[in-house]
Design a protein that fits this description.
By secondary structure, this protein is mainly alpha-helical. The protein has a single domain, classed as Winged helix-like DNA-binding domain superfamily/Winged helix DNA-binding domain (Arc Repressor Mutant, subunit A), CATH 1.10.10. It is 58% helix and 6% strand. A two-stranded antiparallel ribbon has the order 1-2. The longest helix has 27 residues, at 99-125.
């Protein structure tokens, strides 16, 4: 099953954007992510709509982060992606007639909802500035 990597990719992009004053073009971001500019524009649109980035067209234009890293949570970025599924679990029959399958579905659904709530709660407390600080620590340890 293919994993959805958009959240980690957007966090990656935002942290690079926070380190520079210069705008980043969709093409530059695409090269960094091993993607293409059309995909970049599509996933960046949600961040733009949320007010986290802005885009300027034309020569010298590109994407810029508009908020400080301590003002953006992982939950904000997740929501900018229209809250994709966190889990790949599904049900063979969403509304089964079999009482055993109904029980299995209810049990799995409850567990997934509990786990999703826990993950989203954690995402709400994680700020880009915390990831940025971890990047600095890692860079410092490599430089030694």
């Amino acid at each position: 099953m293919r994993q959805d990597t958009r959240l980690s990719r957007l966090l990656h992009v935002l942290l690079h954007m926070a380190q520079t004053e210069a705008p980043m073009t969709s093409q530059q971001i695409a090269v960094m992510l091993g993607s293409n500019a059309v995909v970049v524009r599509r996933i960046m649109a949600g961040l733009r709509d949320g007010g986290y980035v802005d885009a300027e067209r034309g020569h010298g234009g590109g994407w810029r982060i508009t908020k400080r890293t301590d003002e953006i949570t992982v939950l904000d970025v997740y929501r900018s992606l229209d809250e994709p599924d966190l889990f790949a679990f599904g049900f063979s029959k969403p509304s089964p007639a079999c009482l055993v399958e109904q029980s299995v579905n209810a049990t799995i659904k409850g567990a997934i909802e509990t786990a999703k709530d826990a993950i989203l709660d954690k995402f709400s407390t994680l700020r880009l500035s915390q990831i940025e600080a971890d990047v600095r620590r890692r860079m410092d340890s490599v430089a030694r």
